[in-house]
Prior knowledge:
Layout: E1 15-17, E2 32-34, H1 38-65, E3 70-74, E4 93-100, E5 106-110, E6 118-123, E7 129-134, E8 144-150, E9 166-170, E10 174-181, H2 188-199, E11 202-205, H3 206-209, H4 229-235, H5 237-246, H6 255-264, H7 285-301, H8 306-312, H9 325-334, E12 344-345, E13 348-349, E14 363-367, E15 379-385, E16 400-402, E17 415-420, E18 432-434, E19 442-449, H10 453-456, E20 464-466
Helix pairs in contact: 1-5, 1-6, 1-7, 1-9, 4-7
Amino acid sequence: MTVKSYVRSLAMFPILVCGVVSACGSGERTPRAVELSDEEVENLVRRSYQYVAMYNVNNKFAQVQGGWNTLVANTQLKDHTVREIARPNNDTFYVTGLLDLRKDPGILELPAFDSKYVSLMITGYDHYVNIPMSSRLGDFDRPERMLIYTARTEGYGGEPVEGVDRIFEATGDFVSAVIRVMPHANEPERRARIERQAQSVRLVTLSEYRGGEAKAIDDVAFPPVGATDLDVFENNLLEVMQFVFNHTTFDADNAMDQAVLAAYEPLGIEPGRVYDAGRVVTVDGAWLRETAGRIQRRVLEDMTDPELLLRLAPRMFQPKGRTDLETVLRVSVIGPIGVPREEAVYPAVGTLGGEQMNAMHDYVIRMTRDELPPAGAFWSLTLYDLDQGFFIPNDRRKYSVGENAGMELNANGGIEIYVAAEQPAGVPAENWLPIERRDQDLNLILRIYEPDLEKMKTWTPPRAERMGG
Length: 469
């Protein structure tokens, strides 16, 4: 693609951009013409992807969950009907709180959990990941209250609150607070206790905690989400980014923050403005979608590169300041909202020959006892379609192999896992991941909870072997 302008405008296709300080027509600045190259558009998309992905994820969950300042304890493992997020996890329970922190802090009332793995993850539209509590850190052994607020929360500035054990400042006004809990599915009585504990989590606003009524939060209009991230890039990127800018904390000393602000300033999108389609540039959505799709494909093609994953792993799903653009971009494409490697790692499983897995063929993944993932808590292997990152539908609702989804070790303590259209003879049902025989690219992801990071330095993921050659 040759250098061209970014708008549908005059014959020379210049971008008419509102002044840096004020909107067009204010009299303080006059419009000026800007032309963006292919490289500048790619930079815009790369720096936007983390915000687009998380805007789509958090707002879709809000639509499904019934809005903001809601909490749902899902004690049913996820299945192929989930479409809100790519590469979902189906081997932990989720307790999901969606917090609107504009008018009031939110307070999570947390029980003790009888599980060997629990974590609390807080994420805003910027897709920086914070884990303020985890069983790995010795948390969740007693009931606690955590207050969550943001720099823009009205009437609250971080001061102590009687009866609140922890205070956390989030980077966005609209955040997801997600508790992951291993259900111990193979221990029915323990699973029942964990279900009750998950269902006992409560979310209240500070006003409610103090005996008053919740403040109204119905005065906000959200830009439309997209069925996919590419839809947002094509249809309403500037509107979404203006909304994100208005509800996210940007640090003057953070290079990534300043770079995304600089990329949008020429387009008339800056924190604190009200979005007005008549006062910003008209974007060539097809060009944005094509660029985002090309970046997406490039990232997905690199997923099984072990050297790349090893290099990126220390910076995956980290708080602001502990990661970089390349890493945040990749995790936003592959599957938003995950935990850092101290909590879990997610290596992809490629093939012995390096070819892409496809449902036109069957595969087997073999691990000896010494080759099993070095997990301190537990591990699982999950199957998805490559393009969208969703579970492969099947009547058995079997999408993963592991302690919670079921697995059977062999006599030597190892395991053989089969990806096949029909259950192979002599193979335990627990170790079979069903597929439909058609031309569909496949994606296998390992999840290793509380990994032994020292052993991870030399451990390598298994490879899938195509059956019948």
